[in-house]
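Tutorial handout. Part one gives the primary structure; part two gives the three-dimensional structure as tokens.
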Amino acid sequence: MFTRRNWLKTMGLGAGGAALFGPLLTRFAHAQPVAQPRFLFVVEGNCFEPITMLGDPARAALDGSMANPLDGARWWYTRYAHDASLTIAGGLETAPALAGLGELAQRAAVLYGLSSKITGGGHSAQHGVLASARTTAGRAGGQTIDAWLAAQPAVRQQAPFDALRLGANDDPAKPLDFRTCAYAAGQSAPMLLQPEKAYQALFGSVAGGAAAAGFERRGAQLDFAAGDVRATLAAFGGNSAERAKLEAYLASLEALQARRRRLVEIGPQLEGARPDEIVDANTALGRFAQQLELAAAALIGGLTHVAVVGCGTGGDFGMRYPEVINGVGRHDLHHTSGAVPAHLAAIHSVTRMQVDAIAAAARRLAAAPDIGGGSVLDHTVIVYIGDNGEQHHSTASEFPVLIIGGEGLGLRTGNRTIVFPGLRSAGHRQVSNLWNTMGHLAGAQLDRFGREGPTRVAPGPLGELIG
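Part two.
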């Protein structure tokens, strides 16, 4: 039997959508979906090193532009001597972590030289990398790019969820993380860390077994709760603050009901995109790959047009990787990597495995036809970036970036490495300019995203990426 108390107890994490995927719109229209921009942000906690993305042609170009060759350098942001961006064609597949791209190298680009000093760097900038703002004492300094994009009508369209935020960390029992994404300054957006729960919330309407049962149970709970609030309001006289609270509560419940109806409406589309039922993997990297699979399926199925997948983000920099090395966590791997070659190799192997998982998701998007023609990957930009910068104790002076897809939106990748000038150059550019570029691809002006203020070098998108 349902009671208000039982409903409040069971609707927390089990609601799937309410707490996990963002603020709600009140109604979903029934217009036919059209091809439009999609975004997938993949964030690695505590850096991936620039050397892992450096192909042979790019290394040769950098060696020719610097006073001394790179040799064994793992990062080199202090050594840039050019004042205009360098664009190097080809060779991404020769980079240590990018061999798994294969044919996707022709649809990819690597960026160097972008700073985000406003974030602070360190072990983790938490929300900072996606917000181009400083997180202080766990409080986000601004809205993250996923939240901004998800709020744009041209991006959201008829998607049931504003944005999908998934992650993986070392603790399989931890359900949520609040340290990577933010709706606004001081308002964190939760990231779901358990793939099985995410699968149930996203595909329960078309799945069988426990996922389907959970979808039906949550629907009954929503109906009960909405009826309970309506009955209370009917007996509630006057115009008081308490009545206003109840009315706002009912509006939220009705929005959840509308989203549920929308999920039922797009059932055939979801069925075509639905992955096999997911049971949480027993390692963080395994769960990361599962979350990427779910994100790709959600984008294909039209559940959302904006997704974030994190791995050890928000300060979980003690991650362990038993597939790569036993007994040593990421923090200690970094601290010993200068003296222990096996530990350095392990760090770089993790990056390679992450890129392989991203490539698998990209191939799934490339294989899915889009409604407006071409593939879903044609209209999806995948951005892979670290959450703190170029090294373990980062100065936030350089955030290497891998970008895949998005040609149908006007993005230019084409197996290129683009090296922006260093910090002391007037030609220097910042991560906020990359987020400006995402806004441009979504058809909106986003010239001054973030909170860099007087430290902003130049507003606007990165022209090197726009076709």
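Part three, for discussion. The radius of gyration is 22 Å. DSSP finds 13 helices and ten strands in the chain.
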